[in-house]
Amino acid sequence: MKKHVLAASMLLTMTLLTACNTADSVTPSPAPVQDGAETEMVQPETEAPETEAAPEDHTEEETEEMSSAETISFIVDVTDNLIAESNTVIGNAAATAENYIGIMEIHLDDALAERAKNEIETGKTYLFTIGPAMTMSIPPQVTALDFAPATDEDLARLEEVRAELSNFQDCMTSYESMSLEQIIQDANLNYALWTQEEIKEFIEFITQKGYTEDSEVKSYVNLREDLGGSLPGAAN
């Protein structure tokens, strides 16, 4: 049985919408919540994530409070720097308290975006301080209050959380019966949960299967220093 990877509840339930898929479909399946919390499922209507409006445009039904605290910290490998276009950063994130792991769209106000233009780069990792709300969109959207370069301790913590929650082995089992195109489509939604060593193994795996930069379906699965785009970022 395939293991679905979680996004645990913070104050109200949130759900991480990534899980390995069968060869018949690459649409991400809703994942369950840990620790006996009530589960709220949101099923996407299309195969690819769609970028929605900024968090302030979402209704109360579409936005969940993340914590009774005013802020929460996320360690984020930045995949897309869209600050010039939309004051937005997209990255592979993990909450320092293990409450969330996956792709995340981060919105910055004008003042923070102005500073971020000169300080945030793709392929780098940052510690973001986030406001207490997350949309139920794909990917989830949040609002940043501050950011700073990640420390060595942050990077170690990020890998620790990924090692604990990774669905890599289950994905690789699923990929045995999938075409290269299906594998890449699925991995583009799941690799944010994988460790750097697992990502390296996956890159070697698809290379052996014949993947090249000229392949019809693009793989966004790269090691941290080689990140330069994501499926959600491509939708902007």
Structure described in brief:
This protein is an alpha+beta fold.
Rg result: 17 Å
Strand count, sense and barrel status of the largest sheet are: 5 strands, mixed, barrel
Q: How many individual helices?
A: 7
Count of DSSP E strands?
7
Q: Roughly what percent helix? A: 25-40%
Taken from the alpha-carbon principal axes, the silhouette is globular
What portion of the residues fall into strands of 2 or more residues? 15-25%
Low-confidence stretches: 1-18, 22-56
Q: Strand order, biggest sheet?
A: 2-3-4-7-5
Structural class: alpha+beta
Could you explain the architecture of this structure?
Helices cover 27% and strands 20% of the residues. The N terminus is likely disordered. The chain starts with 62 loop residues before the first strand and ends with a helix. The longest helix has 14 residues. The protein is an alpha+beta fold. The protein is globular, with a radius of gyration of 17 Å. It is built from 7 helices and 7 strands. A 5-stranded mixed barrel has the order 2-3-4-7-5. Strands 1-6 form a two-stranded antiparallel ribbon.
Structural descriptors:
236 residues, alpha+beta, 5-stranded mixed beta barrel, two-stranded antiparallel ribbon, 7 strands, 27% helix, globular
List the helices and strands and how they pair.
Layout: E1 63-65, E2 72-82, H1 83-86, E3 88-95, E4 101-107, H2 110-119, E5 125-130, E6 133-135, E7 141-149, H3 152-165, H4 168-175, H5 180-190, H6 196-208, H7 231-234
Parallel strand pairs: 4-7
Antiparallel strand pairs: 1-6, 2-3, 2-5, 3-4, 5-7
